Amino acid sequence: MHLDHDHHHGPVALSADAHRPDGSRRALRIGLGGPVGSGKTATVAALCRALRTELSLAVVTNDIYTREDAEFLLREAVLPPERITAVETGACPHTAIRDDISANLEAVEDLEDEAGPLDLILVESGGDNLTATFSKGLVDAQIFVIDVAGGDDIPRKGGPGVTTADLLVVNKTDLAPYVGSDLARMAADAKAQRAELPVVFQSLRSGTGVADVAAWVRERLAAWTA
Amino acid sequence: MSRAALLVLADGRFPAGGHAHSGGAEAAVKAGRITGAADLEEYCRGRLHTAGLVAGAFAAAAVLGADVRELDAAADARTPSAALRGAARRLGRQLLRAARAAWPSAELDALAREFPKGAHQPVVLGVVARAAGLSAVDAAYCAAYESVSGPATAVVRLLSLDPFEATGVLARLAAEVDLVVDRAVEAAREAVEEAGVDALPAASAPLSEIGAEWHAGWAVRLFAS
């Protein structure tokens, strides 16, 4: 708990307020978005495994029309069930994470009230298109997850997710030789689109990159609690 | 206060969570009761005269100063389906969050403090309308129109219905929305002035309640309710 002298007396937070009603600093919220099948849920699971012994964390999923992602995380037992909440999005995850964030805000606040205190909440979007980004009213930072099998021209195409996400994860690098994706070209295109913003090449199968993503999250958390 | 506040509050893009709900249309589509624009019109008409009338009267009564706790309990009593009561409270909470940002007021903060998990959406809608400087009639319009616009937009997604046809349905129902609003506001005035909240309309559609319970048990669905 990071008690703060600047107490807020409102009944409940409105959106991205950094403090909870009792004046304590709320958990850092990191969004994970990206196309269908790029490995967002698997990345969330890997992050939970990497960080759960050192941090108090929880996950919100935004599925398109099922609770598959929440159920995958439950099945994998990466976190206890009371730390995983599924938000229903009416078939539009990008609406729930960007245009109308009210259900997601309720989910993150309820997790902090009921499973807290928490250091970190991961908000996962259902698979969507290259323009889907998280509202700043919902998350403090966002990770965009693409994969090499989705086409090595995705970094070149750009779009708000690839261009502006705080971290770009290029997943499934182990598949590159089989699908004819050129990792060097993807890295060069990502650099051209993102300038100094970081990119991690990840393979959950071989474990490559997971530690880099976890380290990036730790840096964000250190900045948030500083 | 500006009358245009009504346009802000009634805007389908007002960020209060409505986009994830179908107003019972998803269950009705799956059961084969809505297959196209003609069915949608009949479905919306039924909803307007039941859920729409009740929601309109509750919203208007809240604007006119009826006790919010009493209204919330009376709304519970009119909603047999636990799934629908849950959805109404979640939507009430989401609406209150958006409204507190749009029209900051002590009354809205107090409501959030009193109902941390949300009050019934039409009750919140009435308090919000008052905070926005709007009238009982305005609040009833919002509630009655939402009762048909929600299913109409949901059916566009569920059946890939031509969006022009769905909008035509809403336009054809407009005169009936006027009538329902008149009845809702009259009932709210009577309730607030003498008869009490128990006298507010209690029109119901049992199939909607049954459909909501059925829908809540599905493993795969597009909408939350």
Automatic annotation (TrEMBL), chain A:
Coiled coil: none annotated. Pfam families: cobW. It comes from the Bacteria. One of its GO terms (biological process) is urea catabolic process. It is found in: Cytoplasm. GO terms for molecular function: GTP binding; GTPase activity; nickel cation binding. Residues 30-200 form the CobW/HypB/UreG nucleotide-binding domain. GO terms for cellular component: cytoplasm. InterPro entries: CobW/HypB/UreG_nucleotide-bd, P-loop_NTPase, UreG. Homodimer. UreD, UreF and UreG form a complex that acts as a GTP-hydrolysis-dependent molecular chaperone, activating the urease apoprotein by helping to assemble the nickel containing metallocenter of UreC. The UreE protein probably delivers the nickel. HAMAP family: UreG (MF_01389). This is Urease accessory protein UreG. It comes from Streptomyces fuscichromogenes. The lineage of its organism: Bacteria, Bacillati, Actinomycetota, Actinomycetes, Kitasatosporales. The gene is ureG.
